[in-house]
Amino acid sequence: MIVLDVTVVNVALPAIQTDLGFTQSSLAWVVNAYLIAFGGLLLLAGRLGDLLSRRGVFLAGLTVFVLASAACGLAGSQEVLIAARFVQGVGGAMTSAVILGVIVTMFPEPRERARAIGFYSFVASAGGSIGLLAGGVLTQGINWHWIFFVNVPIGLATGVAAMRLLPRDRGLGLRGGADLPGAVLITAALMLGVYTIVQPAAELGWGSAQTLSLLAVSAALLALFVLREARARRPLVPLRVFRSANVSGANAVQALTVAGMFGMFFLGVLYLQRVLGYDALGTGLAFLPQSIVMGALSLRYSERLVTRFGAKSTLLGGLVLIALGLALFARVPAGGSYLVDVLPATLLLGVGIGGGFPALAALAMSGATRDDAGLASGLVNTTAQVGAALGLAVLATLSATRTGQLAAEGRPEMEALIGGFQLAFLVGAALVAVSFVIALTVIRPERRDAAQDEGAHDIHEAHDDLPVAVGI
C-alpha cells in the first residue's frame, strides 16, 4: 500500500494540478509534504517500536495512514491536501519503520525468515507496478481522489489481519531510551535535511546561500545528536549499532545505490512519455517486466543466492548489474525504441535489484538484537529515503542544467533533452560504482556456517554476520 501510494500519486499529479489550481512550484508540495514527514520520522518511529511495541506502532501508523488517505481523497483545496499528505507521511513512517524489525523477530529461523522476506519483497515490488497502472486507470477512468481512497479498504484489511496474526510484544519501556532531547534533534535534523534537498536545492541550486545555510544547520543538528547520544545514560539511538562495519557499510551502500537508481525511475518515466510518447498507462506497462523480474527473484531465488554465494558476493553481483543497466540507459537515443533501448536496461536493473537488495538489507540488519531491531529497521528505511530524495534532486538538477546548456548552444530541443537524460543516467551509474567499492572494501564476508545453522533461533546469538535474505 505504501509503495503503491508513492507511484500512484506521481502519475496523478497533472490531474491534481488542474483540479485544485496548483502552480508548478506549489504542486511539488503534494510530494514534498509527504517526503519530509516520512523521511524525518523513520528513525524515531523505529526506535519507538523497540521502546513501546513494534506491533503497537505498526497498528497506530496504519490507522494514521488510512485516516490521512481518506482526508487526501476528500480534499477540496490545496491547503487541506498538503496538510493531509504530511499526516499521511507520519503514518507511513510509523508503519514502514518497524516492518523489518517485526519480521526478524517473528521469524528467527534463517530459512523461515528468508521465505517471509521473499514474500514481503515480492509484495513491495508488485506495489510499485500496480501503482503505476492504478494511477493511470483511476485518474483517467474516475478521478484523482480515488488514488487515495483505494488505501482505505487495503488499510482496513491489513489492520484486521495484523491484529489477528501479529503477536503482542512489549518493548523496553520508555525508561529504556526515552531521550527527548535526542528525539527532537534527530527529527529536526532529518526533516530539515530532506526539506533542503527537495525544495531550495531543487529550485535554487546546490550553491545558493539558502541551500548551503540550511544544510549546515541540518549537519550541526546531526552532530549535536551524535554528541548527545554518546553522553546520554539512556540514549535514544545507542551508537553501538554503528560499530559493525557491515551495518554501517551496508547503509552507506544503500544510500548511494538508491540515489543512483532513483533518477532512472523519475527520468525514465520522462523519457518514455516525452520522447517515446507513452501515456500514463503505457508507462506503467513498460516498467512491468522489470517489476516481475524483481518480484520473481525476491520470491524464489534470493534465499538460494545468499545461501549459495553469501550476502556480500550476492550484493556485489547485484551492484554490477545495476551499474550496467544505468550505463545502458545512458545511451538512449532520441529516436529510440522500447524493445532495443529501454527493455534490456530495465531487465538488468530488475535482476540487480531483485538479487542485490535482499542481501544488502540482510547486511544492514545483521547487527540488530531483539532490543534494537526496530531501530535498525528504521535506519535501513531512513538511508533509503534520504538516498532517494538526494538522488532525485541531484540527478534532476544535473539533467535540467545539461539540457539548458545544450539548448543554449543551439541544439534541437529533443537532442538537448536526451543529452540531459544521458548525463543523469551516467552519474547514477557512477554513484552505484562508488557503492560497489565501499561494499568490496568495507563489508566483511559473513560466516557461511551461520547461514546454514537452522537451529539459530535468536537474532542476537546469530550476531552480525547472518546472511539471511532480507528485502526492502
Task: Outline the structure in words.
The protein is an all-alpha fold and 472 residues long. The chain folds into two domains: 2-178 and 236-465, Growth Hormone, Chain: A (Up-down Bundle); 179-235. It contains 19 helices and no strands. It has helices at 2-20, 24-51, 54-74, 78-97, 99-106, 110-141, 146-149, 151-165, 180-198, 200-204, 209-231, 245-275, 280-309, 311-329, 338-364, 373-408, 413-442, 448-451, 459-462. Helix 9 (180-198) packs parallel to helix 16 and helix 12 runs antiparallel to helix 15 (338-364). The relative contact order is 0.14.
Write the layout of secondary structure elements.
Elements: H1 2-20, H2 24-51, H3 54-74, H4 78-97, H5 99-106, H6 110-141, H7 146-149, H8 151-165, H9 180-198, H10 200-204, H11 209-231, H12 245-275, H13 280-309, H14 311-329, H15 338-364, H16 373-408, H17 413-442, H18 448-451, H19 459-462
Helix pairs in contact: 1-2, 1-6, 2-3, 2-4, 2-9, 2-16, 3-4, 3-8, 5-16, 6-13, 9-11, 9-16, 12-14, 12-15, 12-16, 12-17, 13-14, 13-15, 14-15, 14-17, 16-17
The portion of residues forming beta strands comes to: under 5%
CATH architecture title of the largest domain: Up-down Bundle
CATH uppermost class of the largest domain: Mainly Alpha
Number of strands: 0
Rounded to the nearest angstrom, the distance between the terminal CA atoms is 14 Å
Q: How would you name the CATH homologous superfamily of the largest domain?
A: MFS general substrate transporter like domains
Radius of gyration: 21 Å
Order of helices and strands: HHHHHHHHHHHHHHHHHHH
Biggest beta-sheet profile: none
Mean pLDDT: 79
Taking pLDDT < 50 over at least 5 consecutive residues as the criterion, the unreliable ranges are 448-472
State the helical fraction.
Answer: over 70%
| Structural class assignment | mainly alpha
Integer count of domains: 2
Subcellular location: Cell membrane
Protein name: MFS transporter
Organism: Nonomuraea phyllanthi
Pfam family, one: MFS_1
